[in-house]
Design brief:
The structure is a homoheptamer. Chain A has one helix spanning 47-52, and strands at residues 2-5, 9-14, 21-22, 25-26, 36-43, 58-61, 67-71, 74-80, 84-89. By secondary structure, chain A is mainly beta. Chain A starts with a strand and ends with a strand. Chains in contact: A-B, A-G, B-C, C-D, D-E, E-F, F-G. β1 (2-5) of chain E pairs antiparallel with β9 of chain F, so a sheet runs across the interface.
C-alpha cells in the first residue's frame, strides 16, 4: 500500500532517536516534551508545500502531533504542514 | 437513490479491513485510534476537489469523521475534504 | 405567503421518509442520527448557490439543522448551504 | 427621530402576528421557537445589502435577534444581515 | 487634550437622554438594555469609516460598549465601528 | 540597548499621569479602568502602521495591555496596534 | 545537525541575561514576567520574514513561547514570528 497525503499533509516515518548520553550517563529530559524526528515518506498534493519539503527529507515535529497509520505492519504518522517545526540539513 | 455530495463533501463506502494478524496472532491496536479506509463513491460539486479525488479512489480518513447515510439499505459516509488524510495508490 | 430565502439560505419542505423495513421487520436505526431528506422550495439570493441547487431538487441535510417556519399552516425549514450534505439524483 | 442603520444593519418594525387558529382552536407552538416577521423601515449603509432588501420589505428573522430601540415611543429592532432568514414575497 | 482615534475607532460624547415619560408617568424600561445615544467628537484614521460618519453626527450604540476616557474633566467613550448601530438623521 | 518592535508592535514609555483633582479634592475613578497615556519610542516594522504613528507621538491605550520590558533599568511596554485607542494631538 | 525552520519559524539560542543589579542590590522582578533575549540562529523558509530578521540578530520574545529542541547537547528554541516582540539594535 502506497499513500498520497491529501492537501498539506505529509506521511512521516519516525526515526528512532537513541537516548542521548554523555559518557554513559543518561541525561534526563526536562519536563517540557522535546520534538520528534522523522523521515518524509510522501508529501501532500499541495504544490506550495512541495516547494519546501521533499520525500527523503528529515524533519522535526511536535511530539503527539498527527495521526498514526499502519501500512504493511509498519507504523507511520500523517502530519500537517503546521506540525513541521524544521527541516534537518546536513 | 444516487447522491451528489454538496461542495467539498465526498460520499464514501467503508471497505471492511480485516483484523491484521501475523502468523495467526491478532496484534492488538494501540489505544490511539487508527484511520479507516473507504472507497470514494461520489465527489462533491467543488471543482478544485475534483482535481485531486475521483470516484473509485480509495482513501484513508479519520475514524468517527463524517455523517452516516443509508442508501438502499447500505451504509455510507459523507465526509468533507478535511477528513481525508491520504489517497491510497497501488 | 411566499418566501425568498436570504443569501445562502434555502427553504425546504421535509419529505416524510417511511420507516425502512425489510420483509416487514423494522430495522432499528443505530444510535448515530441519520440525515433527513427534503425538497427545495426556494433557493436564497446567493448567485453561486443558485448554480448548484434549484427549487424542486431533493436534498439530504443534517437532522436538527435549520429553523422551522410555518407558512399557511404547513411546516418548512430554513437551512443554510452548509447544512446541505448532498443532492439526490435520480 | 430618523435612523440610518450602520453597515449591514437594518431597522425593523415588528408586525404583530395573530395567534394562528384553525376553526377557533388555538394550535400550540412546538417547543422550538418560530421566527418573527417584521417590516424593514431602513436599510444600512452597506451597498451590497441594499441590492437585496429595501425599506417596505417584509422579512422573517430569528426570534430574540437584534437590539431593541425606542423611537418616538415606538419599539423597533436593529438587526444585522445575518439575522434575516427570508424576504416575504406576495 | 485633543484625541485622534486609531483605525476604526470613534470618540463619542454621551448625550444625556431624559427619562421618557407620557403625561408625567415614567415608563419603566424592559429588562433588555436599550442602546445609548452620543455625539461623534472625532472619527478614526480609517478612511472607509470617514465616508460614513463625521464629527458632529449623532449615533446610537450598544450600552456598555467602548472604553471610557476622561479629557479635561469630561467623560467620553472610545467605540469601534462595530459598536455603532445607527446614525441619527434629522 | 535600542529596540525595533516587530511587525505592528510599538515600544511605549508610560507618561506618569498626575491624580486629577478639582480644587484639591481627589475625584475617585469609577470602577471601570481608564486607559493609560504613553509616548511612542519606536514603531514596528509594519509600513502601514508607520503611516499613522511616529516616534514621539503620545497615545492612549488600554490599561494592562502589552508586555513590560526593562531597558537600561527603565520600564517600557511593547503594545500592538490594536491596543492603541487614540493618538493625542495638541 | 543543522536545522532550517519551517515557514515563519525561527531557531533561537537563549542568551543568558545576568540578574540586573544596582549597586550590588538585586532588584526583584515584578510579578509580570519579563520577555527573554536570544540570538537568531536560523530564519524560516518564509521570504517575507527573511526581509525583517536575519541569522545573528538578537531578539526579544515572550517568556515560555516556543518549543525547546536539543541539538548536539545544546538547548535551542523554535519560535514563530508572532512570538518575536522586537529586534535589538546596537
Amino acid at each position: 500500500m502506497k499513500l498520497k497525503p491529501m492537501d498539506d499533509r505529509l506521511l512521516i516515518k519516525l526515526t528512532e532517536e537513541k537516548e542521548q548520553t554523555k559518557g554513559g550517563i543518561i541525561i534526563p529530559d526536562s519536563a517540557k516534551e522535546k520534538p520528534q524526528k522523522g523521515e518524509v515518506i510522501a508529501v501532500g498534493t499541495d504544490e506550495d508545500l512541495q516547494q519546501y519539503i521533499k520525500a527523503g527529507d528529515h524533519v522535526l515535529f511536535s511530539k503527539y502531533a498527527g495521526q498514526e497509520v499502519r501500512i504493511d505492519d509498519e507504523e507511520y504518522l500523517i502530519l500537517t504542514r503546521g506540525d513541521i517545526l524544521a527541516i534537518v540539513e546536513n
